[in-house]
Design goal:
Blueprint (H helix, E strand, L loop, with lengths): L20 H12 L4 E5 L6 H6 L9 E7 L6 H10 L16 H11 L8 H10 L3 E7 L9 H13 L5 E6 L1 H10 L7 E5 L5 H14 L2 E3 L1 H9 L5 H21 L8 E3 L1 H14 L2 H11 L4 H13 L10 H12 L6 H9 L9 E4 L6 E4 L4 H11 L8
Helix pairs in contact: 3-4, 5-6, 6-7, 8-9, 8-10, 10-11, 11-16, 13-14, 13-16
The chain binds adenosine-5'-diphosphate (ADP) and magnesium ion.
C-alpha cells in the first residue's frame, strides 16, 4: 500500500502519471517550437511539478531537461548555475568537448558559463547557443523567488527568443507569479505559452485510485471509488492520501481478524471512513490549526456545519461560491430548511483575522463571493466531516 500511492511526493515516473494529456501536449508542443517558452500555473497541489517531471520521455533525443526549484534566497544567477550543474544527461553526448561520463559532463556544463558574477541573461542565452543540443530549463516554485529577480527571467526568455534558440524556459508557479512575469515585460507575452493546470477531473482521480488499488492487489466497488474521489475536490494529493489510508484500514482489519493477506483485499465504504479518519489525524498541522481557529468559541453546533457547508458549496473553477450555495449545502447537512439569517453572521466572521481568516470575500454587497484562502482546506474539512460524521455520505 505504501508503494501504490505517493501523497507527499510529486510523481516522477510516466507510468504512475495519470491524465493531463492536454496540458502535456501543450507543453511539449511549446518546447518543440523555437521562440516559445512555457508557464505552468495553478494552485498548490494540483500536480504542476509532477507534469514537469515526466516531460523527458515525450521530448526528442536532442533535448535535455534541467529542473530546479526556486527558494527565497535565490537569484537568477544561483538558479541558472544550479540548473546547469544539476543537468541530467539522458541523451547521446554531444561530440565536442565532453567526455562520455555523466560526472564529467555535469562539470563541463557548469563550467561552460562565464565564471564571473553577476551572470547576465544574455550571456546564458549565448552559452546555450553554443551547445549543439537544446536545454529545457524548468524553474519550479517560481513564486518563491524574490520579485526583483523576475525581470532577469523575462530578459532571459527575450534573449533566447531573439536568438531563435531551441532551448526553452519552463516557469512553474502559482498564477500571481505569471502575472508578475508578464507584467514586467509585456513584450514577452507572445513568446509565452501559458498553461493552466486545473484541478483534476473525477475521471483522472479515479485513474489514480484505481491504478494504486490494482497495484496493491485490492478490489473495490464504484461506490468506494466515488466516495474517495469526490472527497478530493480535484486535488491528487488527497486521492493518494485517502486511498492509501483506506487500503491500510482494510489491511489492518484483515490482520486483526487473522485473515491471510496473500490474496486480493476487498475494500468497503467502512474502510473509506476509517481511512479518512486516519488521514485527518495525520493531516498537516497547519490545516488542523486553521480548522480549530475557524470554528473556535461560540456554539460549535453551528460553526462546524457552516464551515462544512462552505467546503461542500458548489464553487466555480476559481473556487468562488456564494451564500446561496452555502445555504443549499447546509440544508443538505441538516436535512431541513435553513434561512440565510441563520448563518449570515458566521459567513461574515469567517473572513475576519480572528478566524484565520478561513475565507476571503470579493464582489459587491449582496452579491458577495467567498473563497477559501487556502484551497487545501476544502478537502480537509470534508474529510474531517466524514470522519466525524457531520456530513456522512454527503461527499
Ligand atoms: N498526473 C498525476 N498522476 C498521479 N498523481 C499525481 C499527478 N499529479 C500530481 N499527483 C500527485 O499529487 C500530489 C501533488 O503533486 P505536485 O506535482 O507536487 O503538485 P504541485 O507541484 O502543483 O504542488 C503528489 O502527491 C503527486 O504524487
Ligand atoms: Mg510543485
Amino acid at each position: 500500500m505504501e508503494d501504490a500511492f505517493s501523497p507527499f511526493a510529486p510523481v516522477s515516473e510516466a507510468e504512475v502519471f495519470h491524465g493531463r494529456s492536454e496540458q502535456r501536449r501543450l507543453v511539449v508542443e511549446a518546447i518543440r517550437t523555437v521562440g516559445r517558452h512555457v508557464v505552468i500555473y495553478g494552485e498548490r497541489g494540483v500536480g504542476k511539478t509532477s507534469l514537469a517531471n515526466v516531460l523527458r520521455p515525450w521530448l526528442g533525443q536532442a533535448i535535455a531537461v534541467a529542473h530546479v526549484s526556486a527558494t527565497a534566497g535565490d537569484t537568477f544567477e544561483t538558479l541558472i548555475r544550479r540548473a546547469f550543474a544539476s543537468y541530467q544527461l539522458t541523451l547521446p553526448l554531444p561530440a565536442v568537448g565532453f567526455v562520455r561520463q555523466q560526472t564529467e559532463v555535469q562539470y563541463a556544463l557548469a563550467a561552460a558559463l562565464p565564471g564571473e558574477s553577476p551572470l547576465l541573461p544574455d550571456q546564458v542565452a549565448r552559452t546555450l547557443a553554443n551547445f549543439n543540443y537544446d536545454l529545457v530549463v524548468v524553474v519550479d516554485e517560481f513564486d518563491r523567488l524574490p520579485t526583483e529577480q523576475v525581470p532577469a527571467f523575462a530578459d532571459f526568455i527575450k534573449s533566447l527568443s531573439d536568438d531563435r534558440s531551441g532551448s526553452t524556459v519552463v516557469i512553474v508557479g502559482v498564477a500571481e507569479s505569471v502575472n508578475q512575469l508578464v507584467g514586467e515585460h509585456g513584450s514577452i507575452v507572445r513568446n509565452l505559452m501559458q498553461i493552466h493546470m486545473p484541478r483534476m477531473s473525477e475521471d483522472e482521480l479515479t485513474e489514480i485510485v484505481d491504478t494504486g488499488f490494482t497495484a496493491a492487489d485490492c478490489t473495490s466497488t464504484s461506490r468506494v471509488m466515488s466516495r474517495i474521489v469526490r472527497s478530493c475536490h480535484g486535488f491528487p494529493h488527497y486521492a493518494h492520501l485517502i486511498a492509501q489510508y483506506t487500503g491500510l484500514a482494510a489491511l489492518n482489519e484483515a490482520k486483526q481478524k487473522g485473515q491471510a493477506i496473500d490474496g486480493t483485499l476487498e475494500i468497503t465504504e467502512q474502510h473509506v471512513v476509517g481511512g479518512m479518519d486516519r488521514a485527518v489525524q495525520t493531516a498537516d498541522q497547519t490545516h488542523r490549526e486553521a480548522y480549530h481557529r475557524a470554528v473556535q468559541g461560540g456554539d460549535a453546533s453551528l460553526w462546524v456545519p457552516v464551515v462544512v457547508a462552505c467546503a461542500l458549496a458548489s464553487a466555480d473553477d476559481r473556487g468562488f461560491f456564494n451564500s446561496r450555495a452555502v445555504l443549499q449545502a447546509l440544508q443538505q447537512i441538516r436535512g431541513q430548511e435553513v434561512v440565510q439569517q441563520t448563518f449570515a453572521y458566521h459567513l461574515g466572521e469567517l473572513i475576519a483575522e480572528k478566524r484565520g481568516p478561513l475565507l476571503e470575500r470579493t464582489g459587491p454587497e449582496k452579491r458577495y463571493l467567498y473563497r477559501f484562502v487556502d484551497p487545501f482546506m476544502r478537502p480537509y474539512i470534508i474529510m474531517r466531516a466524514q470522519a466525524e460524521r457531520v456530513a456522512d455520505g454527503l461527499a
